[in-house]
Amino acid sequence: MRIITEPEIYIVGRQTIDSEAVQRFLADHETSWQTDGERGSELIVELAGRACYMSFGSHQFRKTNADYINNLVGQGHGSVLEHAVWDLLITGVSRSFTHELVRHRAGTAFSQLSQRYVDESVADFVEPGIIASDPQLHQAWLSAIESAHASYKTLVEKLAAKVQAEHPDLGRTARMKMAREAARSVLPNATETKLMFSANARALRWIMTLRGGEGAEPEIRRFAVKLARVMREEAPVLFGDMEIVRLPDGSEGVRAGHQKV
């Protein structure tokens, strides 16, 4: 059993652009497109914006990818950002955290670890910072976690035996699912979980802004700050205005340079 205090974010999927298809589209419409963009996500956004007005070939529209997207963002044209999508694997977060994150349904998708199928006898747990910083609170929290975890393991063992006795025709997978789905009722919200999280650029900006604010729950605020750092490096044109700020309580938060995108 490990005690975790920081989330991890792995970018496992990102968009690419099919240059041949784009060139075929441009040729079919007797136009051309010059851009200095190199990242698929940023090229997709520029392509979407230019397609709205067919502003590809005219000399006055041949600004840099960064200039073009910054102009869109500055004017609040956030809809074109919805075409840029990433797939993130998130670990080191609690069930409390995912209860908050899954409320963001627009422009997102979630696939979370199943406690019905996965054996939580080897689970890790996420400790809130305000508890971890105080030795007495930490010890009280740790005792509660260890007690709950021990109860879970006892319940799984006894429930598995009960199910096998009462349903001898069930296969092992079905038996263990029945045992774990009942035993998980004693696991705390602090139980660490993992999820695949897919979201478009506009949704990510909203999550960073809302969950990186002063009123956000601390664990999801730490995630929003880390997400902002990761995405500013991943796609600086799309997320460069997401600023890491110091909040009144001394913790870090996120503030968007353009709030209404």
List the helices and strands and how they pair.
Elements (H helix, E strand, L loop, with lengths): L2 E2 L3 E7 L4 H10 L11 H14 L11 H10 L10 E10 H7 L6 E5 L12 E2 L2 H4 L2 H32 L5 H12 L8 E9 H11 L6 H17 L1 H4 L2 E5 L5 E5 L5
Helix pairs in contact: 2-3, 6-7, 8-9
Describe it.
The chain has 261 residues and is an alpha+beta fold. Among the domains are: 16-82, no CATH class; 135-188. It is 46% helix and 17% strand. It has ten helices and eight strands. It has a four-stranded antiparallel sheet with strand order 2-3-6-4. Strands 1-5 form a two-stranded parallel ribbon. A two-stranded antiparallel ribbon has the order 7-8. A hairpin with a 5-residue loop joins strand 7 (242-246) and strand 8 (252-256). Helix 2 (40-53) crosses helix 3 (65-74). It is elongated. The model has no long low-confidence stretch (mean pLDDT 95).
Characteristic key phrases:
single chain; 261 residues; alpha+beta; two-stranded parallel sheet
* Strands side by side in the biggest sheet: 2-3-6-4
Number of strands: 8
Rg over CA atoms:
24 Å
Q: How much helix, percentage-wise, in residues?
A: 40-55%
Low-confidence parts lasting 5 or more residues at pLDDT below 50?
A: none
What is the N-to-C order of secondary-structure elements (H for helix, E for strand)?
Answer: EEHHHEHEEHHHEHHHEE
Short description:
It is elongated, with a radius of gyration of 24 Å. It is an alpha+beta fold and 261 residues long.
